Amino acid sequence: MTATVKKSRRSLTAAPHIVWAILFIIAPLIFVAVYSFTASDGSFTFENFAALGDYTDAFVRSASYSLIATFICLLIGYPLAYAISNAAPKMQRILIMMVMLPMWINFLIRTYAIMKILEDTGIINTVLQAIFGEEFELHMINTPGAVIFGMVYDYLPYMVLPIYTVLQKLDPKLSEAAADLGCNKVQTLFKVTLPLSVSGIVSGITMVFVPSISTFYISQKLGGGQYLLIGDAIETAFGNTTTYNIGASMSLVLMIIVLLSTAIMNRFDKSENEGGAIV
Q: Residue 38 is part of a domain; what is its CATH number?
């Protein structure tokens, strides 16, 4: 009887989460799938997917921009996470707080702030003109570089935090053992620390790539609407009742791409962890 009561209590405790998942995760996915395979009159069709050929450039552009942004986040995020993990405990808390602080600010406000920085009359150009003269101007806004910069700025914490979490948990004795075996700091980093932190790297890559490939607001504001990403195309399609079904099909394809990317990353992470570190 006691076991039955405990099981019932666990079921009641999980009920709100199950209801939430059904209403806001499972049900929307079902609606997207249904609309993807139906025409505007409700009849079954594959024409929505055939129409996606017109958005090939948007898919390619989204994938390339997100891959570049993810790679840059990794180049910046790993050394930053490594430096934080090797700082004093009190300094670690301060540095992590500084990394997380931008995430507490509204996404739209952060994007507008970047616009003000990159504008032709923004802070960067104002400083450069004060140094090199008023005729000097570096055009950054409404360029692919600005869109990628916005992705890196907004999603960099998602790369730093998982890597830092893994590095912070590594046993310091491993580095000491590597030093005893003749490894210098660089060799220890690449032969011990880096292989053991692959799980954090994979998590960071996934957490940056997924929102980057589906983003739309960054490209609209920092790219001036000149560089259509798949997120922009989906937003536009859902804003028009005549293209609602095409928007659903694009969403379904993007969802599949994200799931495949996540599965590949998890597979890679599993194989790397099974390989272990070699000193």
A: 1.10.3720.10
CB 195 within 8 A of CB 276: yes
pLDDT for res 266: 75
Question: Is residue 278 over pLDDT 50?
Answer: no
11 part of a folded domain: no
The total number of structural domains in the chain stands at 1
Alpha-carbon distance of 256 to 248, in angstroms, equals: 12
| 89-100 helix and 144-169 helix, angle to the nearest 10 degrees | 150
Phi, psi (rounded to 5 degrees) for 277: -100, 145
18 has which bridge partners? none
Q: What angle do CA 73, 75, 77 make, to 5 degrees?
A: 55
Structural domain includes residue 279 = no
The stretches of the chain forming alpha helices (DSSP H) are 2-21, 27-36, 47-50, 56-85, 89-100, 107-118, 123-132, 144-169, 172-180, 185-188, 194-196, 198-213, 217-222, 230-238, 244-275
Residues β-bridged to residue 104? none
Least confident range of 7-11, 135-139, 175-179: 7-11
Q: What domain range includes position 91?
A: 22-268
44 strand-pairing partners: 38
